Fold this sequence. Notes:
558 residues, 16 helices, alpha+beta, 3-stranded antiparallel beta sheet, 8-stranded mixed beta sheet
Amino acid sequence: MRTTFRHSWGFVNCALLIWVCVKVGRPKELLEDISGSAWLFVACLASYSIYAWLFHLRSFHSPKDERFPRHQVPTTRAAELQWLAGKGRKITSAQAMVFALAVIAPSQLRRRVIEDYVPERRSIRQSALVEVQLPHNLSATNGGANILIPALVPPKGELHDDLQFYDSSGQQISSLCYREQLTLVASTLRILLMSACAIDENSPDKRLPKNVADIELLALQAIISRRLKLGEQPDTSAAEKLRVLDVPNKAARDIAAELVRRLTLNYAIVIELSLTSDKRTQFRYEQILIPELKLTSQRSKKRWNVAGAVRLGLGARPVDLTIDIANASSCQSYHLHVHAPEGLYLARQEPLGIDKLLRRTAVNAPTPPHCRFRRRLGQSHAHFYSRYMPALQPKESPSLRFRYFEVPPGSTLRALVTALASAAIICLVGFVNSRVADPGTDAPAFLLAFPALAATWLGFGSPTQRLLEGTMSARICLLFTAVLSISAAGLYMAHKTAPSSFQWHVVPHSLSFLGITDLGWGIIASLSVLNAAVVGFRCFTLTWEYASIMTRTPYIRA
């Protein structure tokens, strides 16, 4: 029933639009009943607007129901994990400490992180190289065993696209499955709680005190719990109960409490790595990131506006790229590289949400954070470096914004050439047509239509395979050029077919525009010249800025 009504309304809208066109095509009747024709046009516009909202736009604004039901993990699973942790030791004490430290204080293990970002058609390819070195107090106890560390600790419910891991030799490795990861977490928590309670690992009785075991069960329930709703805040009360336990080893207790708190909010993607003789190793991971699209400026709270919708409708992709740098707080030395397409150059780079971080000092860091951008702009490659970045607080999300422009000559130059050709042809034909109504040839009509074809061919051809492409001003200019060319061709045909007795309006007070005395031709010619002047000014400023950036002395922007 709804589909039939939708199609019927669409048919009525089409019929109404055709009737409006028929009314407009008869100027005598339109002039006699201009009020009725105006109301007919308003009714047609209102009908189309209501139709579009009811059957197309409203469904995107209304909240979507969850397609898949979500179920909470039963509490018996936590009891099973607790039993497995007490049954046998799957990992050593050193491995448990390395894993816990990598979750709660990754900067103590990660010496360097190098991230590379390559924009693609509708996504970004991220590649990160992570260098790991064990602290001296853990190197002596770890022996030759492998280590289990979390490569990523994302929030619960977050998915990763095409995530792949590689070891130091470049061989692809697999991460632990979810069940293995939970078993590792339960074993690590049991080892930390035994150390907190001063229970010797070689003693025959390794059972935890009753109050500690009860809190351990609550902690495991919090760790395996799922977020049933978007934005739901998990219950971290188990971590707070662990933090106030009265035990002999309070350092191990605090590590266990922080581990539970982190893994209540997040989950760990764990990989196993082998160490070299100097207790070093490295791994690399790659994934596809889908950037958030905002049709407004980054500082605006709105997600879209009219200008952004026009940019999207014209196919102009964004030239601003915002990169999250949360990994800078997970290591001691951090490098970020952005490899944009060769047709673009870096014009602006600035940090966002990083001011508070620069005023804090990381644990065991000799100085506050040290941050630098690559000194020279004008190239497609961007480079950011930081050292001693402190740990992030809740709701802190530091990022970097890079703004790219097209390398001159680009689409703006093509738009300028088309606008100049259109302005020259319109002015020439307007000059002749304002003096001779019928020059005896149809060549001017074809000349006037040529800029419109050129604008369509140059500005709206096959799309490129890149995410960043700044052609907003050029595409608006090409669109305006096409509209002016078609309007001029129509005006020329109207002059040629009009009866000789018909009097066309002329420029008042014996004035003219570039020798054009006809009012219609004067308006179109002035708009074409203004269009060429605007895009010419834009082309000049972009070229001057690019030349200035490429030739000036390098500077540091932090």
